[in-house]
């Protein structure tokens, strides 16, 4: 049964024999990359990491990249001309986890030293072997100053009917990046479910393109379903998550994807940081991760990072799950002191598959008018593609909650010099909740 795949949202079952009969795996049949997508590195203004997949091993995998100053994107360009663009060597990881089922190589090419707020065009492939070259794609770097920017957040994705509509909705808003708070493919960490991951990546690649044609980079946080639907003891129990989403230069570091921590930080503008955290999925919320959080947030506070955003899967303040469960109480115990002492602005939570917005919280208590503390807004609870229905929930009302909705949504956040605005947008494209956090006075709802 090691070749079998059982998935959720929607439920499906397949075997290697069924997949062979369907013969629909482009990674096995095409010379050019079957997937090409982008993550941001540590500095969103100057660094991207392009991921690409192939069923064959490229001898000289590379990325060619150039700015809009050198190529407008309108004229036809040959493979020979592309090879005059700036080149970056790509690292490679062979997916040994599924080698008994299919051959798959994942390549990572890091382009750094880019210009902020610039459009870059890129092509990937096996140098000198033109049949492997991808189509030209373009991506936009973030600002490094106080220029306004926006980003989108969603979690609990899957392959439901809502996903493609939600992707279209968020792409029309042209966010700088899309943060996914875990439970991406609902493939339960099963090696035989590699085609479910392919299907989700296909939807993300096709859907995360703005009206101007820019590919929207991804930032992820690990969910329980990436690690076998429960919680893992080692990174190897999340056989797709680590190889498919990297945020550092693996080739330069001479490391495997599993050698990297499941938590990382990203910076954009002059005062904003996004911390992607592991909510006890693979890494404990205490120990090394807690030490990293304290060191990182303390340093960021001292250097003037005032807008701090946290992205993770399991919530501190769940809308559906029992908040007294051990995992939630442990997360509150380990993280609330850090969120409070370093003034985390918004914590994007997932997992419960509803929409929720808490009251502004400090020291596990609602922030009242006149308080010297701004507090943290806990918002989200997943439901990008998958959502709960009221009949499934005993009671979604808790003292810390300000609003609960049972609907798919994406969170769209805009950061300006004066405020942080978080808007909840439904699958119909309607803003059904909004919260404005002034940067220069106590927080208040719009």
What does this 3D model show about the protein?
- With 446 residues, the protein is an alpha+beta fold.
- It is 18% helix and 28% strand.
- It has 9 helices and 26 strands.
- It has helices spanning 16-22, 26-29, 79-82, 161-172, 194-207, 241-244, 250-253, 287-302, 326-341; strands spanning 5-7, 12-14, 35-40, 48-54, 61-67, 86-89, 91-94, 105-111, 119-126, 137-140, 149-154, 178-180, 214-215, 218-220, 264-268, 272-276, 307-311, 346-349, 355-358, 361-362, 365-366, 377-380, 401-405, 409-415, 419-426, 431-438.
- The strands form 6 sheets. A 7-stranded mixed sheet has the order 15-16-17-18-22-19-23, covered by helices on one side. A 6-stranded mixed sheet has the order 14-12-11-24-25-26, covered by helices on one side.
- A hairpin with a 3-residue loop joins β15 (264-268) and β16 (272-276).
- The longest helix has 16 residues, at 287-302.
- The protein starts with a strand and ends in an 8-residue tail after the last strand.
- 50% of the residues are buried.
Short account of what is shown:
This protein has helices spanning 16-22, 26-29, 79-82, 161-172, 194-207, 241-244, 250-253, 287-302, 326-341; strands at 5-7, 12-14, 35-40, 48-54, 61-67, 86-89, 91-94, 105-111, 119-126, 137-140, 149-154, 178-180, 214-215, 218-220, 264-268, 272-276, 307-311, 346-349, 355-358, 361-362, 365-366, 377-380, 401-405, 409-415, 419-426, 431-438.
Main sheet: which strands, in order across? 15-16-17-18-22-19-23
Determine the structural class based on helices, strands and strand pairing. alpha+beta
How many beta-strand elements?
A: 26
What fraction of the residues are assigned to beta strands by DSSP? 25-35%
Cα-to-Cα separation, first versus last residue: 54 Å
Overall spatial form: globular
* Helical percentage: 10-25%
Low-confidence stretches: 441-446
Biggest beta-sheet profile: 7 strands, mixed
Mean pLDDT reading = 92
CA radius of gyration? 21 Å
How many helices does DSSP assign?
9
């Amino acid at each position: 049964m090691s070749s079998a795949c059982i998935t959720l949202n929607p439920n499906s079952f397949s075997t290697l024999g069924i997949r062979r009969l369907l013969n629909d795996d482009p990674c096995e049949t095409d010379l050019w990359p079957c997937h090409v997508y982008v993550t941001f590195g540590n500095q969103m203004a100057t660094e991207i990491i392009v991921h690409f997949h192939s069923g064959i091993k490229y001898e000289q995998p590379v990325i060619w990249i150039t700015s809009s100053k050198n190529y407008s994107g309108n004229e036809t360009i040959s493979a020979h001309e592309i090879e005059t663009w700036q080149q970056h060597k790509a690292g490679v990881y062979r997916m040994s986890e599924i080698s008994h089922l299919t051959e798959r190589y994942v390549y990572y090419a890091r382009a750094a030293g880019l210009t902020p707020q610039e459009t870059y065009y890129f092509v990937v492939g096996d140098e000198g072997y033109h049949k492997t070259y991808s189509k030209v794609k373009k991506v936009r770097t973030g600002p490094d100053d106080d220029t306004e920017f926006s980003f989108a957040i969603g979690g609990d994705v899957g392959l439901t009917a809502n996903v493609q509509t939600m992707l279209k909705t968020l792409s029309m808003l042209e966010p700088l990046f899309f943060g996914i708070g875990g439970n991406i493919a609902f493939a339960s960490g099963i090696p035989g479910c590699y085609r479910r991951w392919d299907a989700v990546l296909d939807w993300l690649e096709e859907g995360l393109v703005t009206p101007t044609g820019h590919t929207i980079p991804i930032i992820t946080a690990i969910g329980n379903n990436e690690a076998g639907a429960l919680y893992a003891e080692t990174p190897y129990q999340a056989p797709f998550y680590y190889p498919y989403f990297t945020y550092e230069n693996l080739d330069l570091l001479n490391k495997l994807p599993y050698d990297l921590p499941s938590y990382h930080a990203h910076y954009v503008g002059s005062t904003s940081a996004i911390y992607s955290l592991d909510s006890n999925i693979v890494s404990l919320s205490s120990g090394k991760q807690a030490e990293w959080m304290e060191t990182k947030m303390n340093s960021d506070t001292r250097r003037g990072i005032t807008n701090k955003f946290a992205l993770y899967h399991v919530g501190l303040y769940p809308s559906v799950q029992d908040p007294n469960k051990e995992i939630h109480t442990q997360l509150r115990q380990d993280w609330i002191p850090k969120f409070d002492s370093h003034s985390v602005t918004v914590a994007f939570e997932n997992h419960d598959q509803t929409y929720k917005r808490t009251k502004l919280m400090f020291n596990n208590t609602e922030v009242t008018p006149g308080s010297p503390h701004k507090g943290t807004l806990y918002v989200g609870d997943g439901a990008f593609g998958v959502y709960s229905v009221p009949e499934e929930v005993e009671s979604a009302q808790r003292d810390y909650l300000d609003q609960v909705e049972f609907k798919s949504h994406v969170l769209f956040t805009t950061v300006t010099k004066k405020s942080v605005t978080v808007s909840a947008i439904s699958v119909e494209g309607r803003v059904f909740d909004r919260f404005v956090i002034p940067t220069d006075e106590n927080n208040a709802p719009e």
